[in-house]
Amino acid sequence: xxxxxxxxxxxxxRTRLGKKQKEIAAEMGFSCTSITAWESQIRLPGADKIPAxxxxxxxxxxxxxxxxxxxxxxxxxxxxxxxxxxxxxKPKAGQVCFPGEIGNAHVSGxxxxxxxxxxx
Length: 120
Known about the structure:
Structural class: mainly alpha
CATH superfamily: lambda repressor-like DNA-binding domains
Distance between the termini: 14 Å
Radius of gyration: 14 Å
Number of helices: 6
Helix content: 55-70%
């Protein structure tokens, strides 16, 4: 659900900007294949790319980052009570953790309202 919403968010934002994937790719310095993969639910971008994506797609960074976090958790099979940190307090392999994480139940309710703008 969140991976789909993340992809739709990007696709809808790009379309509303009147840009093609090729144009977005050129602006960001990424391949068109990457943009297609993000917008088609094939893969998520790296967390380090979120600020650039936010600027290029004109999506508020905090909303995009939260959508990315939830999509990443979904992809990794982390549930609403899942813990992405190991016993040593460091992120488990392949996981992205964000400072000040709050429970998904609260976040998903807020995010669903904000993301409904991007639903097709």
